[in-house]
């Protein structure tokens, strides 16, 4: 007998993780925005401040999307939603993280990595599109065994 959670338990766990990721990224995004507006203003160039604000904006926007993905995932495990969650989280970490690092003095070569975060974000949106196109047909749900 297996002690692993059933399909609905896995879906619920995935939804909780996605909600937690969205909440953490949202909280940190607001903090980053405030830090940029108050602590960085006057300490970095206007261009660097714009870069910082872009990172904070994308982080906050995609944190809200992750919360929406978590709400959708509660209705059952959907592969496309799991992929969206993973890609959106990775995308924010890479995209916003490299922007923040460069503004705080990290090597500008990190700018070459930033687009990979953008690609992850686009992939997350594409996974949401796949979910939208397959949810009515039920194609995104793995078949039950047994």
What's this entry about, in short?
The chain has 146 residues and is mostly helical.
Give the overall average pLDDT.
89
Amount of helix: over 70%
Helices, by number, come to: 4
**What is the strand tally?**
0
Order of helices and strands: HHHH
**Overall outline:** elongated
Q: Report the uncertain regions.
A: none
Spatial gap, N to C terminus: 14 Å
- Strand percent estimate: under 5%
Structural class: mainly alpha
Rg is 18 Å
Features:
75% helix; elongated; 146 residues; single chain; mainly alpha
What does this structure look like?
This protein has 146 residues and is mostly helical. It contains 4 helices and no strands. It has helices at 7-40, 46-73, 79-103, 114-135. Helix 1 runs antiparallel to helix 2 (46-73), helix 2 (46-73) packs antiparallel against helix 3 (79-103) and helix 3 (79-103) packs antiparallel against helix 4 (114-135). The longest helix is centred in the N-terminal third of the chain and has 34 residues, at 7-40. The chain starts with 6 loop residues before the first helix and ends in an 11-residue tail after the last helix.
């Amino acid at each position: 007998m297996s002690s692993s959670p059933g399909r609905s338990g896995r879906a619920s766990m995935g939804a909780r993780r996605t909600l937690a990721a969205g909440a953490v990224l949202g909280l940190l995004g607001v903090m980053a925005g405030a830090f940029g507006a108050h602590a960085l203003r006057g300490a970095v160039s206007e261009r660097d401040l714009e870069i910082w604000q872009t990172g904070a904006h994308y982080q906050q926007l995609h944190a809200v999307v992750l919360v929406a993905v978590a709400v959708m995932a509660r209705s059952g495990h959907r592969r496309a939603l799991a992929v969206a969650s993973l890609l959106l989280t990775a995308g924010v970490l890479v995209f916003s993280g490299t922007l923040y690092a460069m503004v705080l003095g990290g090597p500008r070569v990190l700018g070459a990595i930033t687009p990979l975060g953008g690609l992850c974000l686009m992939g997350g949106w594409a996974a949401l599109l796949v979910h939208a196109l397959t949810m009515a047909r039920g194609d995104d749900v793995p078949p039950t065994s047994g």
